[in-house]
Write a structure and sequence with these properties.
alpha/beta; disordered N terminus; 8 helices; single chain; 221 residues
Amino acid sequence: MKKYLLIILMLLCQCAAFGQGRVYTKKARLEDFPSRTTRVVLTGQEVFDAILKEEISSRWMISPYEFCTVSDYTRERYTDLYYFIRFTFDADFTYMTLSKGGDPDAENQLKQGFDAVSIPIAPAEMGGGDELLYLPAYIDIMQTFISKAMESDRVAYRGLKALTSKIIGPVYSDPAAAAAAFNNAEKFANVKVEIGSSSSNRKYELVFTTDTHELRSIKKK
């Protein structure tokens, strides 16, 4: 059965490629990432931007990067010369999103923009503090995802859940204890971060290691 499903999928891709131009997988669309500049879009919030600059400057290693304003992003988002790290929102949550710039109507799919990954970091209104405390982990998780997505379509399509693995060691869920363990980079330990919306009963639950910032679990409840 799996063999027949694969054949059908291949035929559908070939039909799409014939009718609309060549179709590329997400992995293929990310192949230019290391050679492109990643533009980090500042929020205009002085404290947040200062910490963001510091953490990106000390942690970002997988592509060239530079900082830009929201106006810069608005002007340049339709060019395929850049990737962007920006903060996006829905009704309940704030996300740190990495997107590829590009024209959504471009015939060549490699020149079309798309969101590669979004990490929930705070409620929509932000300001709770966890988004700043755990920013180093979110940056490292994003780098890990992109690095693996460039190598595997399974990761690229499955998203952050593709990074999860068995939880080993203690899990700190009390906010004060979790913050202390994270700040001390306690070895073989984990923190559980709950990101709840004040406008609904939706929430995200993330578990990641305190020293290496490996994502162990992500759940939406």
